[in-house]
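Please supply some protein, with C-alpha cells.
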Amino acid sequence: MSKKQKRISLLVFALVIAALLIGVFLTGNSGSKGESIQELMQNEVLHETNKISLFGLIDVNPGLISAFLVTAVLFVFALIVRIFVIPRFRNVPGKFQTVLEEAVGLFDRLAKSNSPHRNRFLGAYVFTAGTYIFVGTLFELFGFQAVTTQGISTALTAPLSDINGAIALGFLSYGVILVGGITANGLRGLGRTLKEFSLPISMSFRLFGALLSGALVTGLVYYYISLSFVLPVIVGVLFTLLHAVIQAYVLTMLTALFYGEVTEIKHNPKTSKRAAVPAAGDLTANAIGGTKQ
C-alpha cells in the first residue's frame, strides 16, 4: 500500500469516527426506552418477562430454546463429521482434520494429565462439555430472534446465561466425578466426592456469573444511547469471546482435576510393606545361590 492510499484510508477512518461522534452529541440521551434500567437488569437475570411458548405446551426462558438449538446443531455436525469426514482422514492431514485433531488432543491431554488412571470417558466428557460451553456462548453473537408470549421480538441468549442451564451443567459435571470415584474406589471414592459437596454450586455459579456479567455490561452499553454507537459491538464480541474460551477451560479443568483426585488408587501401606519385605525362603535361596557362585 502506497503512502497516498494510507492517507486516504486514515482520512476515511477519521471521517467515520467524526460522524459517529457528531451522532452521539446530537442524539444525546433523549431517546425513548421501553423499559427502565432496573427492569432490564432484572430480566437479564431472572427471565421472568420475556418467555417463549414451547410448542404451545409451556412457557420457557429463551435460554432453554437456545440450549435445544445448540444441542441440535452440535449433534448434526458431529453426525456429519463421523459419517462423511472421519472415514476420509489421511496420514497427511488437511486444515479441517488438523483443527479437529488439535481440539480433541487438547482435551485428551487435559484428561490424561489430571487423571492418569481413568481418563477415556473423562476425555470424551470434557471435550463435549467444553465444546458445548464454547459454542453455546458464541451462539448469542448471531442474534437469532424469537417472539415472546407478549408478542415482542427478543434475541435468544446464551444457554448458560440462564441460571437453570448453568446449574444443570454444574451438577452434571459433579455427577461424572461422583460416578468416576465410585467406579474406581467404591465407598472410599464416594466419600471423597461427597466431601466436596460445594463443588457443583461453585461450578454452576462461577459459570453463570461470568456469562451474566458480559450480558449485563453489554445491556448497559446498549441502553444508554450515548454509548450505543460502535462500542456495543466491540464490548459484546470481546466479552463473548473471552467468556467462551475462559469458561470452557475453567469448567473442564476443574472437572478433570477433581475427577483425577477421586479416581486415584491409593495403595494400602500395610500391603505395600509386606510386599517390600522378601520372604525367609527367598533370602535362603538367594544366599545359597550366592555361595555357589
Observations:
- The chain has one domain: 35-265.
